[in-house]
Automatic annotation (TrEMBL):
This is methylmalonate-semialdehyde dehydrogenase (CoA acylating). Keywords: NAD, Oxidoreductase. Its EC number is 1.2.1.27. It comes from Streptomyces pactum. The keyword Oxidoreductase applies. Residues 21-477 form the Aldehyde dehydrogenase domain. The keyword Disulfide bond does not apply. PROSITE patterns: ALDEHYDE_DEHYDR_CYS (PS00070). InterPro entries: Ald_DH/histidinol_DH, Ald_DH_C, Ald_DH_CS_CYS, Ald_DH_N, Aldehyde_DH_dom, MeMal-semiAld_DH. NCBIfam families: MMSDH. SUPFAM superfamilies: ALDH-like.
């Protein structure tokens, strides 16, 4: 049995709590790995290492920080395949998809390489005679990141490269379901020359998270995960006086207007609904078919869905891998069953799938549900699996009202050839990320990522300019270098002339 430990103070540290969590290979169902679950005392050791490292790291020059980040970028690039293989082994997604995840994470390292541009500050000269005012941004100190299972490399990379580029030190608590990628990211950062203690990884569960949330030396918390936990993280972190951004779950709608190219729309619906087995916070889980295109569109999606090749992520022929755990697979299947009872038409039922040679794997086929009532659990909940709901709407107005009445507002997309309708949609829709003929509009690294409503708790989106703002705080310095003749007593409030 392989054990995954912690990475603290620039070195691997064995778990000392005696508690371990199982890490499965979702394709085989075997548990050949376990992960150490940190005690509060072990979290304290990691925070202390980060606090100690912060004393020097905050003063390390921008050019040295970026030199390390450039080396890190090169090392990640050289190890893409290896990191992707770690992701596939523990998460289950197919290798090409895991490579895509690493590539999107790399984008944020590239953003961090350009941090000197983002930290330039502002200067106004002669605001009063001989007086200059500068606005600068400074690091916060020790910041923590808590990340979900579905992007074990990309989501940590959304956080720590920006945080450390800004001069903070970092304690990462990755998902206990697939922790190996995070440890490898930390090892490579050390190889790139990142000083010990600047990036630490503590593995663990709620015990570790709760300690990070209450620890007096943690200044800020970035969280990505499900909505109930995001809400909890935000309130606990605020209670303990911390800055917090907590990204939650989603139910992303793709609106298809009657003038859309239905083949293109069907291709995109398939890719966005079933890629990574639907375990993406930006997955399309609802298609809203407007007007009389519903039957055609559903047929086109169904034809494509039944042709998908499902198998282990290590097989280059597989287009979709297994789900993360057996329990999750069974829960996803239960939504397909309940949808039928609650009035949906099950056009494609993937729940009975078995994959030859992998009888114990956590596989499920893809499912397509049509005419799903908005009261059905399959519509109301985030399923986080390869289940696509289709809802019919008579008009654009009915469709937008449906989308805007969702409690989530992460991503959304419109498929149309009508520029006016697309423009209206982007202004009217209540979601943080909008795609126009783009089904998964994950912003590039230099724009920020974040949803609205129950998809994000906090004011800052993640990475891009918002990331830099989140990991720094402002300071305004007013300066005068007086001549002896400038003296004199004046108790009046200073005026700018
Ligand atoms: P999760 O909320 O179960 O876990 C996320 C993290 O929180 C993990 O590190 C976990 O150890 C920790 N955690 C879990 N339960 C906790 C508790 N009771 N107290 C304290 N900490 C706890 O999420 P997940 O299942 O790993 O990931 C899937 C979810 O993440 C989906 O809802 C998905 O939409 C969401 N997600 C959102 C985004 C986004 O950007 N909005 C991105 C990726 C994933």
């Amino acid at each position: 049995m392989k054990t995954i430990d912690h990475w603290i103070g620039g070195t691997a540290v064995e778990g000392a709590s005696g508690a371990y969590g199982p890490v499965y290979n979702p394709a085989t169902g075997a548990q050949d790995t376990r992960v150490a679950l940190a005690s509060t005392a072990e979290v304290d050791v990691a925070v202390a290492a980060a606090k100690e490292a912060y004393r020097e790291w905050r003063h390390v020059s921008l050019s040295r920080r970026t030199a390390i980040l450039y080396r890190y970028r090169e090392l990640l690039d050289a190890h893409r395949d290896e990191i992707a293989a770690l992701i596939t082994a523990e998460h289950g997604k197919v290798h090409s998809d895991a490579l895509g995840e690493v590539a999107r994470g790399l984008e944020i390292v590239e953003l961090a390489c350009a941090i000197s541009h983002k930290l330039k500050g502002e200067l106004s000269t002669e605001v009063s005679s001989g007086v200059d005012v500068a606005s600068i941004r400074q690091p916060l100190g020790v910041v923590a990141g808590i990340t979900p299972f579905n992007f074990p490399a990309m989501v940590p990379l959304w956080m720590f490269p920006v945080a450390i580029a800004c001069g903070n030190t970092f304690v990462l608590k990755p998902s206990e379901k697939d922790p190996s990628a995070a440890i490898r990211l930390a090892e490579l950062a050390a190889e790139a020359g990142l000083p010990a203690g600047v990036l630490n990884v503590v593995n663990g569960d709620k015990v570790a998270v709760d300690r990070l949330l209450e620890h007096p030396d943690v200044a800020a918390v970035s969280f990505v995960g499900s909505t109930p936990i995001a809400r909890y993280i935000q309130s606990r972190a605020i209670e303990h006086g911390k800055r917090v951004q907590a990204l939650g779950g989603a139910k992303n709608h793709m609106l298809v207007l009657p003038d859309a190219d239905l083949d293109v729309a069907a291709d995109n619906a398939i890719n966005a609904a079933y890629g990574s087995a639907g375990e993406r916070c930006m997955a399309v889980s609802v298609v809203v078919a407007v007007g009389d295109i519903g039957d055609d569109l559903v047929k086109k999606i169904a034809d494509r869905a039944t042709a998908l090749r499902i198998g282990p992520g290590t097989d280059p022929a597989s287009e979709m891998g297994p789900l993360i755990t057996r329990e999750h697979r069974d829960k996803v299947a239960s939504y397909v069953h309940s949808a039928r009872e609650q009035g949906a038409e099950v056009v494609v039922d993937g729940t009975g799938l078995t994959v030859e040679g992998y009888p114990e794997g956590f596989f499920i086929g893809v499912s397509l549900l049509d005419k799903v009532p908005v009261s059905a659990d399959a519509y109301r909940d985030e399923i986080f699996g390869p289940v696509l709901c289709v809802v019919r709407a008579e008009t654009y107005d009915e469709a937008i009202e449906l989308i805007n009445s969702s409690r989530w507002g992460n991503g959304t997309a419109i498929f149309t050839r009508d520029g006016g309708a697309a423009r209206r949609f982007q202004l009217e829709v209540e979601a943080g990320m909008v795609g126009v003929n783009v089904p998964i509009p994950v912003p590039v690294g230099y724009h920020s990522f974040g949803g609205w409503k129950d998809s994000l708790f906090g004011d800052h989106h993640i990475y891009g300019n918002d990331g830099v703002h989140f990991y720094t705080r402002g300071k305004v310095v007013t300066t005068r270098w007086p001549d002896p003749s400038d003296g004199g007593i004046n108790l009046g409030f200073p005026r700018n002339h």
